Amino acid sequence: MSHDPHAPRLLADIGGTNARFAWQARSGATPEALQTLPCAYYATLELAMQAYLERVQRPRPVLAALAIANPVHGDRVRMTNHHWSFSIADLRQRMGLQRLEVLNDFAALALALPDLLPNEKRLLAGCNPDPDADVQDGPERAVGPLALIGAGTGLGVSGLLPLPNGGWLPIAGEGGHVTLAASNAREQQVLEALQQRHGHVSAERAISGAGLVDLYQVLCRAETCRPNDWGAAEISAAALQGHTQARAALELFCAFLGTVAGNLALTLGARGGLYIGGGIVPKLGVFFDQTAFRERFVAKGRFRAYLESIPVWVIVAEQSPALRGAARVLERL
């Protein structure tokens, strides 16, 4: 079903902590009126959407695309890391929309990767991609799939597969819940502590905001010191200032991320590059480059050289690129 290309659109990137909204005047227009609303302030997604529209005072949208941190199968959506639950059909009707598209947030972010500007991504120090490839050109000239991973409230994983006739196919999976593996005895001890707490230790149990808190607490208790009552942001800040246990926890977080990211790149054959998003790593700056991430990313035995040829980019865009990915979905008939 086709829609008026001049119809206004509502775009959203909804995580477990914050919902980022933007308004788009028409097809191809730059998203504007970006605002971030804390999810905890609103009982339902509908109330958050209404609050945003009341704030920005733009014409009511006719179309909407929501990128959400959750699997999207069928009509009913229940968020994994937040209490919001809704029917897509009911929400479309209640908001007076002709069309409402709902997709996984990392699938939306993946769709935006080809459009990232040079100042919206940073090449990880120590990368030695194929010397015959101009990495500054980004994925537009990539000869293979792109991989995407990012830690925030949860651990998002996606990718883009190049289509034979041009364009890209996003992957909407739940790779953040794969089983996390240890690479040495110390990590095995940490995983055993997490297993006592959670049962199954998925990658997200360590590589997320809550995971960083758990790592910090486990390391403190292992050294018989009392942990501070810190959240992930406070642990990261303390780590950057040299706090011993906080720094150790953040370095372990980055090492685990390297292991999982390397597995992802191998699984997808991501010769076009690995991209790191989410709310944690982009804020670490050069500290991240100095961690074990890079070594753990390439430490895959006989396939070390294969991974060394894959460029790794950290997404540093100020505006959520997932909003642009959501806008792309509305371009499809």
Outline:
The chain has 333 residues and is an alpha/beta fold.
List keywords for this structure.
alpha/beta, Hexokinase, domain 1, 333 residues, Nucleotidyltransferase, domain 5, 13 strands, 20% strand, globular, single chain, 2 domains, six-stranded mixed sheet
Describe the protein.
34% of the residues lie in helices and 20% in strands. By secondary structure, the protein is α/β, with parallel strands linked by helices. It folds into two domains: 9-111 and 320-330, Nucleotidyltransferase, domain 5, CATH 3.30.420; 117-316, Hexokinase, domain 1, CATH 3.40.367. A hairpin with a 6-residue loop joins strand 5 and strand 6. It starts with 8 loop residues before the first strand and ends with a helix. The model is unreliable at 131-141 (pLDDT under 50).
What's the helix and strand layout?
Blueprint: E1 9-14, E2 18-24, E3 32-38, H1 45-56, E4 63-68, E5 76-78, E6 85-87, H2 88-94, E7 99-104, H3 105-112, E8 121-123, E9 146-151, E10 155-162, E11 168-170, H4 185-198, H5 209-222, H6 232-240, H7 244-268, E12 273-278, H8 286-289, H9 293-298, H10 304-308, E13 312-315, H11 322-330
Helix pairs in contact: 3-11, 5-7, 6-7
Organism: Serpentinimonas raichei
Main location: cytoplasm
Binding site for ATP: 12-17
